[in-house]
Amino acid sequence: MNSTTKTSTSTKPKRLHKLKVTLNKFKKKKKQTLCSKPIYIK
Hints:
The structure is a single chain. This protein is an all-alpha fold. It has one domain. About 75% of the residues lie in helices and about 0% in strands. It contains one helix and no strands. It has one helix spanning about 1-35. The protein is rod-shaped.
């Protein structure tokens, strides 16, 4: 039971981190393309 919880908790942050990295990359791309329109960047 403990090992199952350990696995689920160790994979969750990894996936979350991957999502964060992708989001950051997308934000940077958006910033470069819409530098004239900063309203879209939050």
